[in-house]
Amino acid sequence: MEGKKSIWDEVKQIDLVDYLDSLGHQPKMRNNDYWYLSPFRQEKTPSFKINRHQNVWFDHGTGEGGTIIDLGVKLYNCTYQEPLEKLTNGNSLISPLLLYQPSSEKPKNKLEVLSIRSLQDPDLARYLKGRAMPRT
Asked: Can you give the residue ranges of every domain in the chain?
């Protein structure tokens, strides 16, 4: 039985990449990961990584990481309840347009049909006929 989503679950759906973009942080892409200069300290080499598929972050400089809730607590130096209170009072720091939607991105390793045309190769046509497969 599926229960009602809590505010915690809804906040965790906010896309971390889009959220950091809204704060002015630009990533460098490396192996499908988003790398940033840490928002917590000055650095020249990006050590703050977001795995967009899992929607989690990890700061290699400090060994800390987690969800957007953990990021908000660290960024704004507040308790876990404070970001949620701001959201429920309509004073959200986070736009609803930033919700994480993994299905909106096309996977890069999938095949895509570019055109459909009738079968041209006679050997392939004979093979399909021998297997009792319709020729289209």
From this structure: 7-104
The Cα 118–Cα 136 span in angstroms is 6
pTM for the structure as a whole: 0.59
Listing DSSP states for 56-118 in one string gives EEEETTTTEEE-HHHHHHHHHT--SHHHHHHHHTT--SS-GGGB--GGGSPPTTS--------
CATH topology of domain 7-104: DNA Primase; Chain A (3.90.580)
Digit-coded pLDDT (tens) for 16-72: 998 888 888 999 998 878 999 999 899 999 999 999 999 999 999 999 999 988 888
Rounded to an integer, what distance in angstroms lies between the CA atom of residue 41 and that of residue 19? Answer: 18
Is there a contact between 34 and 27 (Cβ–Cβ < 8 Å)? yes
Give the distance from CA 62 to its chain's centroid: 22
